[in-house]
Amino acid sequence: MKLRTIAEDKAFKYLVVAGFAAAATNFGLTYFDTGRLDFFGAALQFALVVVIGVALVTYWNYMERRADAE
């Protein structure tokens, strides 16, 4: 599956937005709690959401193609 197909998927876009919002919220809460900026933690959390999102969208598209073939 091409990366462009995944990036144009509506569900993937929603997952990326939700992941960004969660990472930004966690970044802000960590700053207010400890007074330190945790760029690495926020970037790691966002990257994990993107990786899981790619896997989910790839699986969903595979299952959709499989169902259409039957």
Describe this structure in words.
- This protein has 70 residues and is mainly α.
- The chain has one domain.
- It contains 3 helices and no strands.
- Helix 2 runs antiparallel to helix 3.
- The mean pLDDT is 87.
- Keywords: Membrane, Transmembrane, Transmembrane helix.
Overall shape: rod-shaped
The fraction of residues assigned to DSSP E strands is: under 5%
The count of domains is 1
Q: Rg, please? A: 16 Å
Largest sheet: none
Concise description?
By secondary structure, this protein is mainly alpha-helical. It has one domain (3-68).
Pick out its properties.
3 helices; 70 residues
SSE diagram, text form:
Blueprint: H1 3-7, H2 10-34, H3 39-69
Helix pairs in contact: 2-3
